[in-house]
Each structure stands twice: as structure tokens, then as C-alpha cells.
Design a protein that fits this description.
It is a single chain. The protein has 141 residues and is of the alpha/beta class. The chain has six helices and five strands; from the N terminus they run E-H-E-H-E-H-E-H-E-H-H. It has a five-stranded parallel sheet, sandwiched between helices. It is globular. The chain starts with a strand and ends with a helix. The chain binds D-ribose. D-ribose binds next to helix 3.
């Protein structure tokens, strides 16, 4: 189960992400927002972070205008490693090296085509289980 959250700026791109997940039969929990009406991104960053930390969801996807504010908000929660990615290399590397549990993107930065590739890469790349990366993640915690 994937936790989804966005603000008004991320709403339309999140609709495309949901379409991708549905087409690929990947279950998700949508924590909003549900329109382009202005909202505060920290609310959605927190909801998704809570769903991941509690174990309700295995990972999360967050979208705001830049992806920055919502990833900063999510990263306030202990156990969250939210990675802001606007390219597939970063999405792959952050799974392999950081075991990132939330992908954040900016709808004003990437188009739908690239965003879906980034989501696909993030969801399909396992953590490396490499000792040195485990140690560094423990150091963050
Ligand atoms: C909303 O205008 C915008 O500030 C927000 O989506 C995000 O980019 C913040 O980091």
C-alpha cells in the first residue's frame, strides 16, 4: 500500500500518478488534497509520513509545486527518509543507498511523462542492503 499526498499545486500531477498506479494494480491510500484549491502542504506531508512510520503504508509519494516544502515537512518525522527526485538516476540511487521511504516531486518542475518514470523507478528499485549504507542510515536515525 502506497501513501499519497499533495497540495493544490501537485493535485493534477498526482492524478496522473494515481492513473499509473491503477493501471499497474498498485494499491494506494490517498490522503489528499482533492482539488486545486489552495491548501497548506505541511498537512499532507505529515499525513503521508505518519502512514509510512506507522506501517500502514510501505512507502509514500508526495507532490507540491517544487517538492521541496512537502519533503521538508515529511522529513521532520523520525523514521522518514523523503527524497526529492526529478530524475530517474536519483530515484534509483536514493532507494539503493538511502532506502528512501517517500518520493517527493515538484509538479512545477517535472512533466507527467518524466514523473511517471521516476515513480516507476522508485517503486521498482530495492534497497541495496549494503553494510556501509545501512550504517549511514543508522547514523541518520
Ligand atoms: C504553493 O504555492 C507552493 O509554495 C508549494 O506547492 C511548494 O512548492 C512549496 O514548497
Amino acid at each position: 500500500m502506497i501513501a499519497l499526498g499533495c497540495d493544490h499545486a501537485g493535485f493534477l500531477l498526482m492524478r496522473e500518478v494515481k492513473k499509473y498506479l491503477e493501471e499497474n494494480k498498485i494499491e494506494y491510500l490517498d490522503f489528499g488534497t482533492d482539488s486545486e484549491e489552495s491548501v497548506d502542504y505541511p498537512i499532507y506531508g505529515k499525513k503521508v509520513a505518519e502512514a509510512v512510520v506507522s506501517g500502514e503504508c510501505v512507502c509514500g509519494i508526495l507532490i507540491c509545486g517544487t517538492g521541496i516544502g512537502i519533503s521538508i515537512a515529511a522529513n521532520k518525522m523520525e523514521g522518514i527518509r523523503a527524497a526529492l527526485c526529478h530524475d530517474c538516476f536519483s530515484a534509483q540511487a536514493t532507494r539503493e543507498h538511502n532506502d528512501a521511504n517517500i518520493l517527493a516531486m515538484g509538479a512545477r518542475v517535472v512533466g507527467g511523462g518524466l514523473a511517471i518514470k521516476i515513480v516507476d523507478t522508485f517503486l521498482n528499485t530495492p534497497f541495496s542492503e549494503n553494510e556501509k549504507h545501512i550504517k549511514r542510515i543508522e547514523m541518520i536515525e
